[in-house]
Design a protein that fits this description.
The chain is of the alpha+beta class. It has 11 helices and 14 strands. The strands form 4 sheets. Strands 2-1-7-6-5 form a 5-stranded antiparallel beta sheet, with helices on both faces. A 5-stranded mixed beta sheet has the order 9-11-12-14-13, with helices on one face. It has a two-stranded antiparallel ribbon with strand order 3-4.
Length: about 375
């Protein structure tokens, strides 16, 4: 931003010099208020950030579309009082100033846009340049990073602390074989949980850094569903939960079979974990004109309405105690979401407390010569 200000200031300074030279010998004629230099206008039009130029009377000579869209400028007025006061200070002493401000996105509500602001004089013309760069996304990413670090520290500290305590307790109970056996089983459980968290973190990290599939393969949906069912069959049998699949025969989607198995396995495992005994979990496929919808429906406890928008966040748990009791890492649904993004698809959920949940994976259908010709014919026959 400093380089941009220097470029614009240099253009304006040249204009100020020319005005000064032209006014020599005509002391009785008042020097007209300089207009915005053409060079400055061209620079401002290319800036991605919000840019405003004020004249000596605080009128807006030029404002970028972004400055007006964000509500910083209305008509020929700079409506943010803090920015206006800062511009006046800069005009008086010629010192470049920087600050941060927040602008309400809507008239009512908590949503705001954060800006990093730099205000500088434009040579000796009396003009002042205000540059405001949107920092909202950067702040959001920083907040997500801080939350992630805090969450992962907690998630790793819990099993590591438990392992340390159990190891110490086992050593003290060396003369009690039954206690040793019991503590050893707990240690194995905590070690398994720690392994699951680390493996899920590795999977999520790889997905977040990967590009969407450039050359996906045709994947047999029936095989994906069968692999997912086999992976959770033992847990389902222990609760006498019936696993049913329908409509998957002959259905093919483009993608990575291993990743799709992971996504389906995570959804089916969640359905089994949060369903009461002797209920049913169904997996179905529906083929539409452009997509294949894979649904996993359960008769479980359901998800509260206020939690539906957050369940795909990393480490977010509706019921933390129950999730840990079932061995969940809090990363399964986040992994599903990123797998769908990787496949240019999407995941959605319908749920009602006490009535169960239905998760839907929506994937694009594979491109075939017949579909390509059909799409081309539709395009040619569409009214112009």
């Amino acid at each position: 931003m400093a380089g941009i200000v220097g470029l614009v200031t240099g253009v304006a300074a040249g204009l100020a010099f020319r005005i000064s030279e032209a006014s020599r010998g005509r002391t009785r004629t008042p020097v007209p208020q300089p207009e915005l230099p053409p060079g400055v206008a061209e620079v401002l039009s290319a800036l991605p950030s919000s840019a405003v130029v004020l004249d000596s009377a605080d009128r807006v000579l030029r404002a970028s579309s972004a400055a007006r869209a964000f509500g910083i400028v209305r008509g020929d007025e700079l409506v943010i009082s803090d920015l206006l006061a800062l511009a006046r200070q800069v005009r008086r002493d010629g010192v470049i100033r920087e600050t941060e401000i927040e602008v309400a996105v809507r008239k009512f509500g908590p949503d705001v846009t954060s800006f990093a602001v730099r205000v500088a004089p434009l040579g000796g013309t009396g003009l002042v340049l205000v540059l405001a760069e949107d920092q909202t996304e950067r702040r959001r990413v920083e907040a997500v990073r801080r939350d992630f670090v805090a969450n992962i520290s907690h998630e790793l500290k819990t099993p590591v602390g438990a392992l340390s305590l159990l190891a110490e307790t086992t050593a003290d109970a060396s003369d009690d074989p039954e206690a040793v056996r019991r503590f050893t089983e707990r240690m194995q459980q905590e070690a398994s949980r720690l392994t699951s968290v680390i493996q899920d973190l590795i999977t999520l990290s790889r997905l977040q850094g990967a590009e969407p599939l450039a050359e996906p393969e045709d994947v047999d949906v029936e095989a994906v569903v069968e692999d997912a069912i086999d992976a959770v069959a033992t847990a389902a049998d222990s609760k006498e939960i019936e696993l049913m699949a329908s409509g998957t025969e002959g259905v093919v989607v483009p993608g990575d079979e291993g990743l799709l198995v992971t996504a389906m396995r995570n959804l089916v495992a969640n359905a089994v974990a949060y369903s009461p005994e002797r209920t049913r979990v169904s997996i179905s496929a529906e083929v539409t004109e452009n997509t294949v919808d894979l649904r996993v429906a359960d008769q479980g406890i359901g998800i509260p309405q206020q939690d539906l928008e957050r369940i795909f966040e990393r480490f977010y748990r509706v019921d933390a105690a129950r999730s840990r009791a079932t061995g969940g890492t809090g990363l399964g649904l986040a992994i599903v979401k990123h797998i769908m993004t990787h496949h240019r698809g999407e995941v959605s959920v319908w749920s009602k407390e006490g009535s169960g949940s239905t998760f839907t994976l929506r994937l694009p259908r594979p491109e075939t010569p017949e579909r390509a010709r059909s799409d081309a014919n539709t395009y040619r026959e569409a009214p112009q």
